[in-house]
Amino acid sequence: MPASRDSDYLVVTKVMEIDDEISKLKKEKAAAEDALQAFKKKTKVFFDQKTKQVETLTEENNRVKAALEAAQLQHRQDIEAYEIRLSSVNGSEKSGSDKDLLLEIKLLREANEQSEQNAKKLHDECLEVEKKKHQQENMELQERMAAQIARISEDRGHSEEQVAALQSEITELNKAKNALAEELAVVQRALAAKGDAEQQVKQLGTELAELRVKAAEQRK
Fold first, then answer.
1. How many Å apart are CA 49 and CA 123, to the nearest integer?
2. From CA 33, how far away is CA 152, in angstroms rounded?
3. CATH number of the domain that 77 lies in?
4. Binning pLDDT at 50, 70 and 90, where does residue 192 land?
5. What is the pTM of this model?
6. 121-174, pLDDT tens digit by residue?
7. Separation between Cα atoms, residue 192 and residue 186, nearest integer Å
8. Are 80 and 57 in contact (CB under 8 A)?
9. In angstroms, rounded to a whole number, what is the distance separating the alpha carbons of residues 166 and 22?
């Protein structure tokens, strides 16, 4: 009996320890999920900020581009107006300085067109550099986020495996506990049967003694 009670106590104690361990693992899993949600929220804030920066930069570039185009348009219009005035003068009346000025205007127009092309090329290059910079930053952040998610998922998976293993161990311990309980019941039934048999033997002994006394009295 004492040995059976000790075994039962050990099983119950082990089950309680495993329940505590499962509770601990579930808390760790919940903490990992909270960390994942916080990281996703932080990542969203970062991407929103980057998106806003890109939008602001694009707006600023568009304003600069519009101002540059307006200045270039005004410059072309001034050149064309001055060229028209010079062209209205007869060739014989044009002075050497006027001819030089016409040539200068032609060269200036070509330089202006080249400047416009260079400005457009520079603007496109700046946008491309900024775009690649943001793409690189986003890729690095996505890689860090993926690594963090993988690490958290791995920890969570490991915790789930531990929980499953502990739950399986609890099942086995419960089976062992039930088996011990059945054995204990068998022992208790055997002891009860033994007690009944002893009582019957005692009773038969008493009855036999009484019969012997009666037989002795009858012989007298």
1. 23
2. 8
3. 1.10.287
4. confident
5. 0.38
6. 777 777 777 777 777 777 777 777 777 767 766 766 666 776 677 777 767 776
7. 10
8. no
9. 7
